[in-house]
Amino acid sequence: MSRKIYRELQAALMSADADDKCARTAALWADWQAGVAFSLAADPAPPIEDAGRPARPELVDPSALRSRRLGSREGHGAMIHAICHIEFTAINLALDAAWRFRDLPREFLADWLRIAADEARHFGLLRAHLRGLGYDYGDFPAHAGLWDMARRTAHDALVRMALVPRVLEARGLDATPPIMAKLRAIGDQAALDILDIVLRDEITHVAAGDRWFRHLCNQRGLDAEATFLQLFDAFDAPRLQPPVNEKARQQAGFSSHELSRLTARR
User: Fold this and answer.
1) Residues 6+ apart with CB under 8 A from 124
2) Rounded to an integer, what distance in angstroms lies between the CA atom of residue 23 and that of residue 261?
3) Angle CA(85)–CA(89)–CA(94) in degrees, nearest 5?
4) Whether the bond into 238 is cis, omega within 30 of 0
5) Per-residue pLDDT averaged across 199-207, rounded?
6) DSSP-derived pairing of the beta strands 38-39 and 3-4
7) What's the angle, vertex CA 186, arms to CA 64 and CA 130, rounded to 5?
8) pLDDT for 137-177, tens place per residue?
9) Which helix (H) or strand (E) holds 43?
10) 142 phi and psi, to 5 degrees?
11) Which residue segments constitute the domains of the chain, with CATH numbers given?
12) What is residue 64's DSSP assignment?
């Protein structure tokens, strides 16, 4: 008898325990790779307001997050915690994409199961490093900006692929090298090794979003780059902040022309 993958996806998505969520996510991807028989037939996904997450960290408005000096122990911990929170939220974003958009090909589900497992692995590496600094996930406040975009794009896979992988996750491609430079300056080689892994994997995640966005645009007879710019403006997406990692973005599917037009929207 085949297992019901959407039931198992929902259990992982709604788990409020970080260790349990990561374990369920890794197990789902391992079973998928092993060829476990999953039933893909399912009714449309019911609406959810929030994915499962621990009671901590406290979620606050981004403006309420105070700046800390990276050279201090607290500032160092706060930076690693912020990256850790991004990766935790990214687990939920990937699980939600796999669970929610059920009318897409089997390959879409496989992509987002893989990505969720990658994000869970990143979270585990960063959390272990954070613990080595004397802190744990939840010890600093964080914000819910990434999940807010998941709510706003829950109605349409095309819009989700445009605004989560190609906007929010692509911002990580830009932000990671400057963060690595700061960590290099304070001698945190362990964090640099982790972020090398994260950056390499995130290029493939943005590329998956780009591929499915273009697939859906083609299916609907839409020009992909024009549609992306329209959605970018309509949703008031965060503008590109220099320095833009053009090489990584191009590896993930952005064209030079598109990047020029995006840069002009600062």
Assistant:
1) 22
2) 41
3) 145
4) no
5) 98
6) parallel
7) 60
8) 999 999 888 899 999 999 999 999 999 999 999 999 999 99
9) none
10) -145, 180
11) 58-263 (1.20.1260.10)
12) G
CA quadruple 93, 167, 105, 19: dihedral, nearest 10: -20
Look at residue 263 in the predicted model and tell me its pLDDT. Answer: 87
CA distances from 7 to 4, 47, 143, 220 (A): 6, 14, 28, 30
Six token digits for residue 264: 């002009």
* CA-to-CA dists, residue 243 to 84, 132, 181, 246, angstroms: 22, 30, 13, 9
Instruction: Report the distance separating Cα 19 and Cα 25, nearest Å.
Output: 10
Please, are residues 145 and 62 in contact by the beta-carbon 8 Å criterion? yes
Nearest partner of 160 among 123, 105, 112, 199, judged by Cα: 112
Supply angle C-alpha 91, 96, 102, rounded to 5.
140
Residue 264: CB partners within 8 Å, gap ≥ 6? none
Using DSSP's 3-state secondary structure scheme, residue 187 falls into coil
Alpha-carbon distances, residue 107 vs 81, 97, 157, 212 (angstroms) = 33, 12, 14, 10
pLDDT at 200 (0 to 100): 98
